[in-house]
Amino acid sequence: MKFPRLPGLTGYDLAVDLGTVNTLVHVGGKGIVLNEPSVIAIELRNGVRKIKAVGDEAKLMLGKTPEGVRAIRPLRDGVIADIDIAEQMIRHFVEKALGGVGLRHRANKIVLAVPSGATMVERRAIRDATAAAGASEVHLIEEPMAAAIGAGLPVKEPVGALVVDIGGGTTEVAVLSLRGLAYSGSVRVGGDKMDEAIMAHIRRHHNLMIGEITAERVKHVIGRATRPDDAGERMTVKGRDLMTGRPSEIEITEAQIAEALRESVAQIVGAVMNALEQTPPELSADIIDEGITLTGGGALLGRLGEALHDATGLHVKIADNPLICVALGAGTALDDESFAGVLTRA
Ligand SMILES: Nc1ncnc2c1ncn2[C@@H]1O[C@H](COP(=O)(O)OP(=O)(O)OP(=O)(O)O)[C@@H](O)[C@H]1O
Ligand SMILES: [Mg+2]
Q1: Which residue CA neighbors atom 15 of ligand 1 most closely?
Q2: Ligand 1: which of 17, 18, 21, 268 to mutate, judged by most atoms within 8 Å of the beta carbon?
Q3: What separation in Å is there between the alpha carbon of 191 and the centre of ligand 1?
Q4: In the 8-state DSSP scheme, what is residue 170?
Q5: Is 137 left (phi over 0), alpha (psi -120 to 50) or beta?
Q6: Collapsed DSSP state (helix, strand, coil) of residue 185
């Protein structure tokens, strides 16, 4: 006889997508309950670090903190840059997702999505931080596998599927078949590099320093992966003039931003071409039928699908809700026993 599981006694099962830009938490039986920026604001006073804000509230402080307070993104380049701070951030998000602390709000299993390119050392660091945040069992799932499950690709069947997850720190390209990765590759290019390229372009061509929040907004509004025939849409941006030191504003065009993003886009296209070249022929045949599926926030960059289609000749599809695919897929893998095998005990 099978007893119903009582979450109040055994704890909840959590899936965590600890992204460089956004962290999402999926709770078994409930769905995604938390989706916040991976940012933490810390105050340093007399050598003691104190958390001022985490997530949404901390992101509002990025680039605007008062003296003594720093808003930090502990995962900046796709890896944990500061393990101590990352651990505090994970702990905060896990507690918030569970609705408090205490016995009734315990995490039982936590499954974490890890970039397929993460080294053993990085995997261990992320696992330890999660265990310290209060999980009794930590499992790992490869990020592209989670993305593919979350996007609804047929990963349990013997057909090849190509998924490209474009996050803030990395772009992961994987060919999946029969619950496994037939190929995986990762390049350290994503939304952050695009924002940096926009900042550098505007500094170089207009002598204007802009902040990263402004650069990200420019990318969302007029960012395109291919150049328009004319100047395209226009947008006003504000920052600090490097010559006069004064606040200043300029107008930039879609064509200029496409130029700024060219290198990042080329690297993403290159990573996909690389994956196609290394895919076993039977799976290549499937990919002709199934096409390429894009996940991650970078999938929303204007005309990226077209750029990839032009380069590969393949059909390109953007997943529904690309920003939540990894968390959804990791949660599904944990909830649904038929996905057993895609999780590894850490
Ligand atoms: N409409 C849009 N156009 C272009 N980029 C976008 C858009 N919406 C979101 N993004 C970008 O997507 C990125 C965040 O995506 P996502 O949440 O998938 O990253 P992440 O999972 O935190 O990072 P990683 O997987 O590399 O650790 C940000 O750089 C954000 O600016
Ligand atoms: Mg991600």
Answers
A1: 297
A2: 21
A3: 5
A4: -
A5: beta
A6: strand
Residue type, 174: A
Encode the chain (346 residues) as per-residue pLDDT tens digits. 444 454 445 678 999 999 999 999 999 989 999 999 999 999 988 888 899 999 999 998 888 878 888 888 888 755 677 778 888 898 899 889 988 655 556 778 999 998 887 888 888 888 888 888 777 889 999 999 999 999 999 999 989 999 999 999 999 999 999 888 999 999 999 999 999 999 999 999 999 999 999 999 999 999 999 999 999 999 999 999 999 999 999 999 999 999 999 999 999 999 999 999 999 999 999 999 999 999 999 999 999 999 999 999 999 999 999 999 999 999 999 999 999 889 988 7
Query: Any idea which residue has 């390109």 for tokens?
Result: 316
Task: List the residue whose alpha carbon is closest to atom 21 of ligand 1.
Answer: 19
Nearest-CA residue for atom 25 of ligand 1: 167
| Distance from residue 298's CA to the centre of ligand 1 (Å) | 5
Decide if 7-38+73-144+326-345 and 147-189+266-323 have a common fold: yes
Domain 147-189+266-323 is of which CATH architecture? 2-Layer Sandwich (3.30)
Domains of the chain, by residue range, sit at 7-38+73-144+326-345, 147-189+266-323, 191-261
Q: How do 292-295 and 247-253 pair as beta strands?
A: unpaired
**CATH placement of domain 7-38+73-144+326-345:** 3.30.420.40
Q: Best mutation site among 165, 219, 328 for ligand 1, i.e. most ligand atoms within 8 A of its Cβ?
A: 219
Q: Give me ligand 2 centre to Cα 259, in Å.
A: 25
CATH of 191-261, one of 3.40.50.880, 3.30.1130.10, 3.90.640.10, 3.90.1150.10: 3.90.640.10
Residue 325: strand, helix, or coil = helix
